[in-house]
Amino acid sequence: MVPRPTRSVHVGQSGEVGGCADFFASLDKKTEEAGVLDPGVFRVKNYPYLRVNRFIASFRDDVDRKAALIEWVDRMQTIDQHARRFEIANLPDSAVASLDSANQRAGLCRKVETCGDILKAEDFQNAENQKKLRNSVSVPADYIPLRRVLGLYPLTRWFVSHRVSVWHDEVHKTFSTKPPDNWTTIRYVPAEPIHLFKSSPVVQPKKRDTLGIPQYSPKELETLFRTWAPVWEIQFKGDYDRIGTPVWNGKGLLKVDTSRPVTYTLLSFTRFGKDILTQLNYIIWFPSRPKEGALDIYGGPIDGLNYRVTLDNNGQAILYETIHNCGCYYKAYPTHRLKVRNKIDYAEPPLILKAPDIIPSQNGITVAMETRTHYVQHLYPTTRGFQAAKGVYSFADYNRLRSLSYSNDHQKSMFDQSSIVPESERLERFILWMTGVYSPGAMRQWGRHAVAFVGERDFDDPFYMDKMFKPLSK
Question: What pTM was computed for the model?
Answer without folding.
Answer: 0.96
